[in-house]
Amino acid sequence: MTPEDLSPLDRAQLAEKLRSNPTLTFRNTPEQQALLDRVTVTEKMIPTRHGDCRTLLVTPPEAGANAPLFINFHGGGFVRGHELRDTIFSAAIALRTGARVLDVDYRLAPEHRFPVAFEECYDMVAWVFSHADQLGIDPGRIALGGHSAGGNLTATITLKAHHTGDFRPVLQVLDYPFLDAATDPEDKTPGIEDAVLPYERMRSFNRLILADPAEARNPYLSPVFTDPARLPGIAPALVLVAGLDPLAGEAERYATMLVAAGTEVRLRKFLNSRHGFVTNGLEEAAEARDLMVSALKEAFARPI
């Protein structure tokens, strides 16, 4: 797909429409709020080439001075922002794994179009690896993970770090990731259009992300277009796919590429679930979270 450029006013109006009309509405509950009451949440501003990146360090009671770390990237098509549900999800992961969790509030399109969020988050992760002692974490036990657009950031940051050798996470968790900005949404997974992520909404996200349509096939935005010869040796992956999600095809495609490169990959498809099910606690979310926790514990137990 070649997204036509929009005027700044058109972009702002489209972004406001996407932000003010969510297809899923998160409802907090006393049980979820109780998770936040059991952890300590501290704002951390981390330097990057685009200015400080706002993060929330979520610490469970038992975390020691050399704890593992899970870095969590929220979804939202690179347009919708960080929400309470992201910190609640981070608290749940922290409490179940004993790891600290860094919940990332990165810059958004269209105010900051590609590659700003990618570069900001890459710099942030690199800083974390080189300043782990300041966060009370073990640099040999850092995992990355994210949902939808956050899964994209996880995959692309891990990919670039593999290319540069700057750092290596013990695990990349790709939760119903967006991995292909070039293919029209209607052609991605034929026959599947989800009310949570309808085709035109996906096209709108792409219009706001891309300043240059030629960048749609950039592997650091669309990792399904990376050179397979440059994949061997990349960090292990857990790939969670929603069976009723139009993004299912690209997630499975990338998982297949990783397997072909000799990467250790766990791929699980939740046939009865929609896009966004994990962070919103829908359908098979409990099973998906169990799998994520198990994979993180295993990865943290065998540091690189």
Automatic annotation (TrEMBL):
GO terms for molecular function: sterol ester esterase activity; triacylglycerol lipase activity. It comes from the Bacteria. GO terms for cellular component: cytosol. Gene3D superfamilies: alpha/beta hydrolase. Pfam families: Abhydrolase_3. InterPro entries: AB_hydrolase_3, AB_hydrolase_fold. Transmembrane segments: none annotated. One of its GO terms (biological process) is triglyceride catabolic process. The keyword Transit peptide does not apply. Keywords: Hydrolase. Residues 71-278 form the Alpha/beta hydrolase fold-3 domain. PANTHER family: ALPHA_BETA HYDROLASE FOLD-3 DOMAIN-CONTAINING PROTEIN, TRIACYLGLYCEROL LIPASE. This is Alpha/beta hydrolase fold domain-containing protein. It comes from Pseudooceanicola albus.
